[in-house]
Amino acid sequence: MKRSRFSEEQIIAVLKEQEAGMPTAEVCRRHGISSATFYKWKSKFGGLEVSDARRLRTLEQENSRLKKLLAEAMLDNVVLKDLASKMYDPPCPCKGRLVLTVPVCTNVSGLSRVGRCCGQALMRSARLVPR
Q1: Could you give the CA distance from residue 38 to residue 36 in angstroms, rounded to a whole number?
Q2: Within a domain: residue 122?
Q3: Residue 93 sits in which domain range?
Q4: Which of 7, 47, 62, 91 has its CA 20 to 30 A from that of 21?
Q5: pLDDT at 82 (0 to 100)
Q6: CA gap 56, 131 in Å, rounded
Q7: Element (DSSP H or E) covering residue 29
């Protein structure tokens, strides 16, 4: 964030000058600021005291810090989900039953197996009848 030439105390003093009756153009000319800057300050600090402005600044800093922590945590969560999805082996479609007729469980080597359900490998001709 860009650092301002003016502290919160100085900004509030400028705003109070205008509230005391000095024309806005004169206040801006005296302090070397544009009228857009003055009205931006007025929308942000109008009606605040110095202690309120300090509290506002500390709350904004804390809010920024917490947003950064949340963004990091969300990024970590996405990375962990991605890793978990790569590490997870989906279960065999036969759901643990010894049904060797499921084509997904058929191995390229000619052996038919139940997949990772029971870890057995049988010849393709040895088919079990489902219950």
Answers
A1: 5
A2: yes
A3: 89-131
A4: 7
A5: 86
A6: 71
A7: helix 24-31
What is the chain's Cα-based Rg? 35
β-partners of residue 111 are 123
CA separation for the pair 118, 100 (Å, rounded): 12
Q: Name the residue type at position 112.
A: S
At 25, list the tokens.
Answer: 């153009």
Phi, psi dihedral angles at 108 (to 5 degrees):
-70, -30
Mean pLDDT taken over the chain: 77
Tokens in use for 63? Answer: 């809010």
Confidence of residue 74 (pLDDT cuts 50, 70, 90): very high
Q: Are residues 17 and 59 in the same domain?
A: yes
Quickly tell me which residue has 């402005």 as its tokens: 53
Task: Write the CB contacts of 96 (distance below 8 Å, at least 6 apart in sequence).
Answer: 114, 117, 118
How many structural domains compose the chain? 2
Tell me the pTM.
0.47
What 3-state class would DSSP assign to 36? helix
116 within a domain of the structure (yes/no): yes
Q: Are residues 59 and 21 in the same domain?
A: yes
